[in-house]
Design brief:
The protein is an alpha/beta fold. The strands form three sheets. Strands 7-6-5-8-9 form a five-stranded mixed sheet, with helices on both faces.
Length: 292
Amino acid sequence: MTQVNGTEVRREVEGEEPGWEVDPDDDWGVAVVETVGRQLKLRREALGMRAAEFGVAVGYGEDMIYKIESGKRIPRPEFLDRADEVLEAGGLLSAMKEDVKKVSYPKKVRDLASLEAKAVEFQLYDPLNIHGLLQTPEYARALLLMRRPAYVEEEVERFIAARVARKSVFEREPAPEISFVLEEWTLRRPLGGTTVLRHQLEHLLEAGRLRNVELQVMPMDREAHAGVDGGIEVLKFEDGSAVGRSPVVANGRPVSEPRHLRILELRYGIIRAQALTPRESTAFIDQLLGET
């Protein structure tokens, strides 16, 4: 701890950094972080405070202050709150937290979340894992920690935060219609341990009780399966347009052409027909929970 104006301030140990790296290909994100950095520097210099003094006051090293002020690091929300107080910014810096929070999510996740926020109907099938919109934070962490080469801890934090933020789709009014098809084996695999799996199954049952959500399970004993070519995502919008994605259609890029969407919807419709009904699926997940 360090004393600053009679107040004890926690000094971050070496290696703990108050933010994340900026994606150089994220033009909007780079602009936001550079703007925040300029505001920090202007406020600091207006008070005649050196970067080293400011670093001590907020609990971070001088080098990290320079990185944030030059737009090379995305500051954490708590850093901006503390900086606003130390630099007597009157809420100016704290007010930037919302944009900075968005920048902390990877660009591809932000783009997806933007589409999800406008969609009125979802058709979602993931053959490898429980879909991200249904994952608990603990399950998401366990899944991300399985990746090789491994993500660094800050990347794991960013992806978890982004997945949690996407769940706002369940709270929208009017609520969109959301259909999920889940593979049985993903519900049996205890990623992160039995406790994590139990909480995940409980969360699925809660989600399945929502009037606008339908969960269906594809049993492992099915002899016919239209989903062997990979996952499917189709988002439909109020104006009648739609966008979809699947690894075997247009090399996995998002598509909106009717001929591509027809293939995705055909496959998804067959997958749903082959899976358990929503009522059967709820009973099946409940049974799995009892066995876990």
